[in-house]
Amino acid sequence: MFHEGQINAQQGGASASLWLTDSIRNGGSAQDRRGWREKLRDWAEDVELVPDLGQRVGSFTWFRGLATCLGLCAAALYLSPGFHPLPGAPQPLMPARQFDEVRSQMIMPLALGADSGRRMGPTDAVQPLRETPERPQIELRAQIGGSDSLGRALARAGVSGGDVATVTSLVAGDTGAGLKPGTPLDIVLGRRASRDVPRPLDKLAFRARLDLGIEIARVGGVLQVQRTAIHVDETPLRIQGVVGESLYRSARAAGAPPKAIQSFLRVVAQQVDLGSISAGDRYDIITEYRRADTGDVEVGDLLFAGLHRASGRGIDMLKWTQDGRTQWFEASGVGQRRGVLSAPVAGRMSSSFGMRRHPILGYTRMHAGIDFAAHYGSPIYAATDGFVSYAGRHGGHGNYVRLEHGNGLATGYAHMSRIAASPGQRVRQGQVIGYVGSSGLSTGPHLHYELYRNGRTINPLSVRFTTTAQLAGRELAAFRARLAQLKGLRIGLPVQVAHRNAAPAATGK
């Protein structure tokens, strides 16, 4: 007998089967079909088909994924194809002569006899030449290197010694101290009479200076020179602009040459802290600038440096030469301030000013200067500007030089091994006036340095020289006129005038 629950279950199962059969037969309603899709999607989301074997190691899902992986690997190995060679009819072998003809065209390893890219296999049509023909001309471009000369550059290019000597003599008055490094040389070598002689120079063209072009050609077997004068505009270049994130980048974007910007920064750094320059400040750069009609340019030295600040003191600096010394002056005519050297020689102070026991005489007496221990032959520098009032042997001082600096001040330098100054000579601060030695009453190489005020020795450490150049009178007027002339220049390159190239000089030997 069946239990009542079993009968109900059987009846329910039969009803579900009848419902499924009717649904399949009748196509089912849209709501029923949507329900099956959702159930299938839910089942797919619950079943992890590709489990991560690095997660939940030892779980049922992990073992199921491991079994799947092993099954796929076994199936791939079972279904993998073999690597047996495919059968094919062998090609007939070529004769050795035919193989040699096509050998250079074959794509084969060099180890198996391929000659691709190296040479062609010769045939009966190839006949050896008794000698290879020469090119009628060879065109070269050489360049002048650093510490180089025109003659050495031509010799390296293959020009004969005789032609080098001829060219050097033809342009001796045009090259002056020598050609600038980097100058290109366009060379044409002609046909030679035999293989054991160098090729003759047929043509040579180069730029001797920015305003002079030279061309040398062989006419009737003789080298002749032709000079072409080139007009050069020497109006200075003026660049102005506003400082952005960087003064250097702003000036470069405005077209200022790198050499001029670097000089500008060095001059400005003597007056203000470069870190205090901020966005909005205006810079004014004027530099020497030579422009040839051919388009070549030469950037010279910086002439004027101006900085107009949004807040703070502005700067106007002009380069000026006074008494043979070129330095930077402010717009008011005040020049650079220069202090005393830290030491007139590279060495340590071994003895100070005052009473001490003399190492040679053996008794205590006044040491009227300071001593600097230094290596024998080290250069001795002038402490500041002055003129040489004495240079020669001076008793216990040995070889001695005395400099007068004005206002009753003078300096003395003793025990030199060699004197590099002469009486009456004007010297500049830092100029070499002699070399360390041990002449006179001395126990070893050192410099004895003295300072005099109105003829009496004083402690050299008690005085620091400060020299400030100041323009006055006619020189100040000329300085201000030059400053006004430069500040009146237009910004950027000046308007180009018509070409005024002079006619080429007459051709001559």
TrEMBL record:
Organism of derivation: Sphingobium indicum (strain DSM 16412 / CCM 7286 / MTCC 6364 / B90A)
UniProt record, GO biological process: proteolysis
PANTHER family (alphabetical): CELL DIVISION PROTEIN YTFB, PEPTIDASE-RELATED
Stored Pfam families: Peptidase_M23
Name the UniProt record assigns to this protein: M23ase beta-sheet core domain-containing protein
CDD domains registered for this protein in UniProt: M23_peptidase
Highest rank taxon of the organism: Bacteria
Cofactor: Zn(2+)
